Amino acid sequence: MEAKASDAAGKPLGETQHPASVETDVLIIGAGMAGLTAARTLAEAGVQVMLLEAASRAGGRILTVRESDEVVELGAEFIHGKAPELWRLIEEAGLETYEIDGDNYSFEDNHLRKNDEVGEGFTFLEKCEDWQQPDLSFAAFLEQHPQLDEGTRRHLINFVEGFNAADHHKISVVSLGIQQKAEGQIEGERAFRVRAGYDLLPQHQLDRARAAGAKLSLNTKVESVGWNYHRVRVQALQDGRSVHFLARRVIVAVPLGVLQAGRIAFSPSPPALRHAHGLCMGQARRFTLVFRDRFWATDTELEKLSFLFAFDGMPPVWWTPHPASSCTLTGWVGGPRSQQMAGLTEAKLAELACVQLATIFSRPVEQIRSQLLQCRTHDWHDDPLAAGAYSYVAVGGAESSRLMSEPAEGTLFFAGEHTDTTGHWGTVHAAMRSGLRAAQQVLEDRQSAD
Ligand SMILES: Cc1cc2nc3c(=O)[nH]c(=O)nc-3n(C[C@H](O)[C@H](O)[C@H](O)COP(=O)(O)OP(=O)(O)OC[C@H]3O[C@@H](n4cnc5c(N)ncnc54)[C@H](O)[C@@H]3O)c2cc1C
Questions:
Q1: What's the Cα-to-Cα distance from 149 to each of 129, 141, 142, 372, rounded to whole Å?
Q2: pLDDT of res. 265
Q3: Who has the most CB within 10 Å: 85, 142, 325, 334?
Q4: Which among 351, 377, 403 is the end of a domain?
Q5: Domain count of the chain?
Q6: Ligand 1 and 427: CB distance under 6 A
Q7: Containing domain of residue 75, as a range?
Q8: Does residue 162 have its Cβ closer than 6 Å to ligand 1?
Q9: Cβ-count burial of 108 within 10 angstroms (0-12 exposed, 13-18 middle, 19+ buried)?
C-alpha cells in the first residue's frame, strides 16, 4: 500500500507539516524502545510504517541530558545483565559500555560502613522461585517467614520496593519468582552503563528504522483509536489541530500508566485493556546532583564508592558512576515512599539532598552546597506521557502481560515493557523484546491474511 499524505487542498506534505489525514500499512503509537524496535523490524521487512509520538523527541523513558561535561540519565540508566538482543544493538551501534563495580556502603545509626552483604536480598528472593501456592503479596510472603529479623525484613522491603518501584503490599510473589529466574538466565546480577549516554541507543534504532523507510511524526498525541478487522482510524492532536491516520494494523506501545488512565479511547475496547489491570504502574523518584569534584572520594576509603544505602533517610539509595570518574551523585526512591518527594522542584531536591549528604559524609552542609553545580530530575509520575516509572505485576496478575500481548483480530497489537512475556518487566530489554514480538505477530498476520 502506498503512503498517502495530503493537506486539505490536496498538496503533498513533508514530514514537518501537518497532514489532515495519512494512510499507511502499520501505525505504531509511542516511539520508546518498544515502538522504535517494532518500527525498525517491520520497515526492514518491507512494511510501510508510521510512528506517532506525542513528545517532541523519541526515546520515551530513556532520557539523557548533558550537564557541565557530565552525562546525566533522567530515566533508564543501567543495562541489567546480558540480554542478547540489547547487546546486539549496543554492539551494532558501536557504543562503549562499562560494568559497574566498586564498594557498597550503608548509613545506619549515624554510621557509614562498608556493606559486604549486598547479596542478602538476592538470596532471600530466590525463595520466591519455589513458591507453588496461590499468589500473594511480598508483604504476606514475609509474614510466612517469622524467623527473619527486623533489620533483614526492612532491607528486603527496601530492596523490593526500590528495585521494582513497587508497593510491597501489592507486588506478586509469583512474578518475583519469574523475574528471579529470568534474571538468572541473563547474568542479571551484573549491570553496565552506556558511557556516552543511554539515549544513543533509541537514536540508533530510530536511524535504522528511518533508513529502512519508517516515518516518525513527533508532537502527535493520539487521543482515540477506532478499529475493526484490518481497519484502524487513529485520531491525534498535532499542535492543537486534530489529524487522522488510517492503517490496516496498529501497535500500541505507550506506557501502562497511559492506558490505565484512559488517555487513549479505544472503540471497541480490546481485551488487553481489561488485562492491563493485573499490572501496576510503579512509582519512583530519581535525581542527579552534578558537583565540581568528587568531594566524597577525597577520603581514600570512599574512593570506590558505588551504592550507598541510607534506608532511614530520603532518598534511601544513592549511587556514584563508579568506576567512571564523573562528579555526580544520584538519589533514588522507589515505591510508595517516592510520594514523599512528589512534586519537588530541582532546587528543593538539591537542598534536601545537600542536608542529607552532609549528615552521611560528616561535612558542613555549606561545603556540600558550595560544591554543587546542578540538580537534574524528571518527574515521571507527573509526566502525562508516562504516568509513572515502570510496571510491576499485582497479586494474581502474572499472566496479564501474556494476555495483553495477544493480538486483537490481527489488527490491534500491544507492545511496551509491561507486555514483555519473558519476566523482565520494567526494563529496556523488556521493551525491546515486546517490540520484536509485536512486529513478528504483525508479519505473521500479514502472511496469513493479506
Ligand atoms: C526513572 C527510571 C529509571 C529507569 N531505570 C532503568 C534502568 O536502569 N534499566 C532499565 O533497563 N530500565 C529502566 N527503566 C525502565 C525503562 O526506561 C523502560 O522500561 C523502557 O524505556 C520503556 O520503553 P517503552 O517503549 O515500553 O515505553 P516508553 O519509553 O515510555 O515509550 C512510550 C512512548 O509513548 C509515548 N506516548 C505516550 N502517550 C502517547 C500518546 N497518547 N500518543 C502518542 N505517543 C504517546 C511516550 O511519549 C513515549 O515516548 C527506568 C525507567 C524510569 C522511569
A1: 21, 14, 11, 39
A2: 98
A3: 334
A4: 377
A5: 3
A6: yes
A7: 64-101+191-198+281-377
A8: no
A9: middle
